[in-house]
Amino acid sequence: MKDSTGIDSLMDITQRPDFTIVEGHGCWLVDDGGKRYLDFVQGWAVNCLGHSPEIIQEALKKQAATLINCSPAFYNEPMKKLAACLTRQTGLHKVFFTNSGAEANEGAIKLARKWGSKHRNGAYEMITAKMSFHGRTLATMSASGKPQFEPLFEPKVPGFSKVPFNDIEALRSAISEKTIAVMLEPIQGEGGVIVANDDYLRFAREITRERGILLILDEIQTGVARTGKLFAKEHYDVQPDILTLGKGIGGGVPLAALIAHRDVSCFEHGDQGGTFNGNALIAAVGLAVMEHVGQPEFLAHVEAVSTHFVRKLEELAHERKLGEVRGKGLLLALDLNGDIANDVVKVCLEKGVLLNAPNARTLRFMPALNVSVEEVDECVSVLSQVLAELLSRIS
Ligand SMILES: *Cc1c(COP(=O)(O)O)cnc(C)c1O
Known about the structure:
The chain is an alpha/beta fold. It folds into two domains: about 55-295, Aspartate Aminotransferase, domain 2 (3-Layer(aba) Sandwich), CATH 3.40.640; about 295-365, Aspartate Aminotransferase, domain 1 (Alpha-Beta Complex), CATH 3.90.1150.10. Helix content is about 35%, strand content about 20%. It has twelve helices and 17 strands. The protein has helices spanning about 40-45, 55-65, 75-90, 100-120, 140-145, 170-175, 200-210, 235, 280-295, 295-320, 340-350, 375-395, and strands spanning about 20-25, 30, 35-40, 95-100, 125-130, 160-165, 180-185, 185-190, 195, 215-220, 240-245, 255-260, 325-330, 330-335, 355, 355-360, 360-365. The strands form four sheets. A seven-stranded mixed β-sheet has the order 4-12-11-10-7-5-6, with helices on both faces. A four-stranded mixed β-sheet has the order 1-2-3-15. Helix 2 (about 55-65) packs antiparallel against helix 9 and helix 3 (about 75-90) packs parallel to helix 9. The protein binds pyridoxal-5'-phosphate (PLP).
C-alpha cells in the first residue's frame, strides 16, 4: 500500500504527537501547522546552544566545503583539534570518537575489559547503579539499572552487578577480586535527576583507587556545561579513569566521545573502530561547541539562569504544595508529589511548552544552555497555569 505521509513506513518505536516539526530556532520549535513551542527538552539535553545556532551552521558550512569525510584511517584537522581540546578540558589524555553515547559507553566497557584482561587476571565484572541509564546497545542496556530493561532482550551481556545509588556501604561490599570498574553518572538523568552526594562520588574515587580498579563516569547527560561547570565531575573534584561524553558535545549532530587516562588507554590496533569515528564534518561541529561552552562567560550564564530557574520552581512548588526541586545547572527536576507528570507534559504540549517526565511524578527541565531568563519565566508561567488547572480538576 502507498504511504503518502511516510508515517506508516517508520518503525513504531515510540508514541509521537500527530504533527511534524518543520523548523527550530533557539528555544523555539515550529510545527507543520505553524504552531510554536517553547522547547525545554532540546532533543534530550542535546541542543546545548538551542536549535540551528549560528555557530553550528557556520562550522558545518565551512567544513562541508573543505572536507566531509576521509575515513578514520587518516588524520583530519578537526579530529586532531577536538581531541586536543577535550584532553585539555578534561585533564585526561586519550580520546576515541563515536556517533552516540551508547557507543561511547560500549567503548568504555570494552576498554575496561581489555584493561582487566591485562591487569586483573582476566576479570571483567563492572559495578553500576540501580536506576542508571547507559544506553541502548545490548551491553549498555545490560549495564543500565533501569527496571524496565530487565526483562528485555535476554540473555543480557553478563558481568554487571547493580548497587543502590548513593549508598557507600553497598558499593564498598560489592567490590571483589572479579571487579574491574565502577561506572556511575554524577547525576542520574533518566533515573529522575538524582544527584550523586558529594561524599558518594568522592568515596567511589577513593575506593576504586585503593582497590586498584577503574572509575568510569558517564557524563553523557551531565557534561558539556549542562550542570554549570564544563563537566559535572568538577562539582565533586573527582577525576575518573574513563569519562564518556555525548548529547551536548555535538549540539545536535551525532557525536560522542570516550576519553581515558593514558595509563588505561590499552586498545591495540584492531580492538576498536567504527566507520564514522572522528568524521571531519561532525568533529568540526564538536570543536565549535566545546570552544564556545568552555568560555567562563558562558558557564556563568548557565549558573545565573539556573539560580533564577531554581528559585522560580521552588516558589511554584511552595505555592502548589509540590515536592522538591533537584539537579544542578540546567539539568533540573521538579517532584510533583503525585503521579501527574505525564498529564502535565501532555497539557503543556497543547499550550506550546515542551517538557519531559522521566517518571510518573517528576518533571525534567533541560533547556538550551543559552536560554534567557524571560524564556524560563514563560515556561514556569505556563507550567503554573497547567498545574492550577490539573490540580483543581483532581481535587
Ligand atoms: C542519553 C544517555 C546515554 C545514551 O546516549 P545515546 O546517544 O542515546 O546512545 C548514555 N548515558 C547517559 C547518562 C545518557 O543520558
